[in-house]
C-alpha cells in the first residue's frame, strides 16, 4: 500500500491556509505519497468515522491561492479521556499514514504538542509536524518571525482602517475601531500604526498597572482632548479585543456585557461587537464631561480571516508547506516548521516552547519597550502630557486624570 500523509486545519481561519495545504499536497504527491485531507480538524482523529478525502494535484493547484480553508476547520479540543479511549489509530494504520500535518494557531499547536507526546509514549510510528498559523501573530517564533496570515490580515485591516480614517476626517467625527487579538495586540497595533491612528490601546501597554474599563476610556478621551487642543475635531481610536481578556470579572461586569465561553475557556468575543461596547462607554464618558463629539464603532475581525493572501503570505506559506517535507525527510517529528528570515528551514520543537506547568505554548506579546512600538507612541499618537494641562482645562477640570503616561503608570 502506498505511504500516505494526513493534513488537518484547526482553530479559526487565516489567509494562507489553502496555500499551506496546497503546497504540502503538491510536494508530497510529487514524491509519490498519497495525501489525505481531514475535515473538521482534530475531531476526525477521535472519531471512528472521520470525514476525509484524497487531495489531488488539480485540487491543490486550484486552492493554493484562495482565501479560506478548503479543509473544514474545527476548534475541537480532545480531553485526556479522548486520548485514552477515542484516538483513531485505525485511521492511520488502515491508510498507511506516516505523517500527520497540523495547521493552526496557539490552541492547535498545544494540541499538536499533546498528540506528539502521546504518540511518542505509545510508540506509534507516526510523525507529526505543525505549521504555525494565526492572524494574532502570537506564536513565539524566533527573531520576531510572523505567523502566516498575519501580514495579509494586517493588510486587509489597513484597507478598512484607511477608509475609516478618511471618513473621520471627511465628517469631522471620531471612530472607535476594535481589532482581533485574543492574547496580544499585534494586529491592532499593526493596523493602527499603519493608519497613523492618534490612539491605540493594546493589553501590553498596561504592563505597570491593572487594565480597567475607566483607564481604557480615559486613554481615548485623552486623545480626543489633545486633538481638540491641536484644532483637530476628528480621529480614530484602535482598541485590541485582548483588553477584555485581561479585565477582571468585576471590570467585565462594568462593561455591561455577559459573555459565554468557548471550549478552550475563552470569552466568545465573536458574539458581541467590542467596538460597539467601547464606543458606548466612550459616549457615556463624553456626555458626563460635556464634550461634544460624535463617535461611531467599527469592528475589524471576521472580514480579514478569509481574505485572499497577499504575496508575502503566498510565498511564506508555500515555503512552509515545502518545508514540511524537508523536515519529514530528515526524520523530524513533534515540531513546528520554521523558516528563518534568511530562508533556511529548521524544526522548532513544541516541547521546548511549552510552559512546564500547563503544557501549553505561551503567547508572544507585543514588546512594548521596543523602539518599533515606542516610536509610534511618542511620534504618531496624540494624547495629553503635562505640557497640555493648561489648555486641556478648557475641556476637563482635572487634565492630569487624562495624562496618557499617568493612566498607564509609565
From TrEMBL:
Domain of life assignment: Bacteria
Name of the encoding gene: pfp
Keywords, ordered alphabetically: Cytoplasm, Glycolysis, Kinase, Magnesium, Metal-binding, Transferase
GO cellular component terms, A-Z: cytosol
SUPFAM superfamilies xrefs: Phosphofructokinase (SSF53784)
Coiled-coil ranges from the UniProt annotation: none
Record-linked PANTHER family: PYROPHOSPHATE--FRUCTOSE 6-PHOSPHATE 1-PHOSPHOTRANSFERASE, PYROPHOSPHATE--FRUCTOSE 6-PHOSPHATE 1-PHOSPHOTRANSFERASE SUBUNIT BETA 2
Catalytic activity: beta-D-fructose 6-phosphate + diphosphate = beta-D-fructose 1,6-bisphosphate + phosphate + H(+)
Pfam families, sorted: PFK
Span of domain Phosphofructokinase: 5-325
Cofactor(s) needed for function: Mg(2+)
Family, as annotated: Belongs to the phosphofructokinase type A (PFKA) family.
Protein name: Pyrophosphate--fructose 6-phosphate 1-phosphotransferase
GO function terms (MF aspect): 6-phosphofructokinase activity; diphosphate-fructose-6-phosphate 1-phosphotransferase activity; metal ion binding
Record organism: Alistipes communis
Protein function: Catalyzes the phosphorylation of D-fructose 6-phosphate, the first committing step of glycolysis. Uses inorganic phosphate (PPi) as phosphoryl donor instead of ATP like common ATP-dependent phosphofructokinases (ATP-PFKs), which renders the reaction reversible, and can thus function both in glycolysis and gluconeogenesis. Consistently, PPi-PFK can replace the enzymes of both the forward (ATP-PFK) and reverse (fructose-bisphosphatase (FBPase)) reactions.
Signal peptide: none
Amino acid at each position: 500500500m502506498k505511504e500516505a500523509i494526513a493534513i488537518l486545519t484547526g482553530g479559526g481561519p487565516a489567509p494562507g491556509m489553502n496555500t499551506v495545504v496546497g503546497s504540502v499536497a503538491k510536494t508530497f504527491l510529487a514524491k509519490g505519497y498519497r495525501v489525505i485531507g481531514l475535515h473538521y480538524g482534530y475531531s476526525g482523529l477521535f472519531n471512528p468515522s472521520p470525514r476525509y478525502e484524497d487531495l489531488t494535484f488539480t485540487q491543490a493547484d486550484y486552492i493554493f491561492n484562495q482565501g479560506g480553508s478548503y479543509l473544514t476547520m474545527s476548534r475541537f479540543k480532545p480531553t485526556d479521556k479522548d486520548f485514552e479511549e477515542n484516538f483513531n489509530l485505525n485511521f492511520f494504520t488502515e491508510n498507511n499514514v506516516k505523517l500527520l500535518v497540523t495547521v493552526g494557531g496557539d490552541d492547535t499547536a498545544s494540541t499538536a504538542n499533546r498528540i506528539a507526546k502521546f504518540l511518542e509514549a505509545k510508540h506509534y510510528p507516526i510523525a507529526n509536524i505543525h505549521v504555525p498559523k494565526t492572524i494574532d501573530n502570537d506564536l513565539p517564533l524566533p527573531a520576531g518571525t510572523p505567523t502566516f496570515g498575519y501580514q495579509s490580515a494586517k493588510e486587509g485591516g489597513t484597507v478598512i482602517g484607511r477608509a475609516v480614517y478618511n471618513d473621520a476626517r471627511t465628517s469631522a467625527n471620531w471612530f472607535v475601531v476594535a481589532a482581533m487579538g485574543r492574547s496580544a495586540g499585534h494586529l491592532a497595533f499593526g493596523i493602527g500604526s499603519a493608519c497613523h491612528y492618534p490612539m491605540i490601546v493594546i493589553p501590553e501597554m498596561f504592563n505597570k498597572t491593572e487594565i480597567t474599563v475607566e483607564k481604557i476610556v480615559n486613554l481615548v478621551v485623552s486623545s480626543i482632548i489633545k486633538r481638540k487642543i491641536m484644532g483637530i475635531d476628528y480621529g480614530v481610536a484602535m482598541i485590541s479585543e485582548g483588553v477584555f481578556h485581561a479585565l477582571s470579572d468585576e471590570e467585565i461586569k462594568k462593561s455591561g456585557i455577559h459573555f459565554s465561553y468557548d471550549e478552550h475557556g475563552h470569552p466568545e468575543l465573536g458574539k458581541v461587537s467590542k467596538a460597539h461596547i467601547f464606543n458606548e462607554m466612550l459616549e457615556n464618558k463624553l456626555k458626563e464631561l460635556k464634550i461634544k463629539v460624535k463617535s461611531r464603532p467599527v469592528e475589524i475581525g471576521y472580514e480579514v480571516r478569509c481574505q485572499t493572501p497577499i504575496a508575502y503570505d503566498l510565498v511564506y506559506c508555500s515555503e512552509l508547506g515545502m518545508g514540511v517535507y524537508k523536515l519529514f525527510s530528515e526524520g523530524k517529528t513533534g515540531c513546528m516548521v520554521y523558516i528563518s528570515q534568511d530562508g533556511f528551514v529548521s524544526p522548532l520543537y513544541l516541547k521546548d516552547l511549552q510552559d512546564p506547568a500547563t503544557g501549553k505554548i505561551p503567547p508572544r506579546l507585543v514588546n512594548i519597550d521596543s523602539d518599533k512600538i515606542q516610536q509610534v507612541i511618542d511620534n504618531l499618537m496624540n494624547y495629553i502630557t503635562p505640557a497640555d494641562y493648561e489648555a486641556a482645562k478648557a475641556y476637563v477640570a482635572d487634565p492630569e486624570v487624562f495624562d496618557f503616561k499617568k493612566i498607564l503608570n509609565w
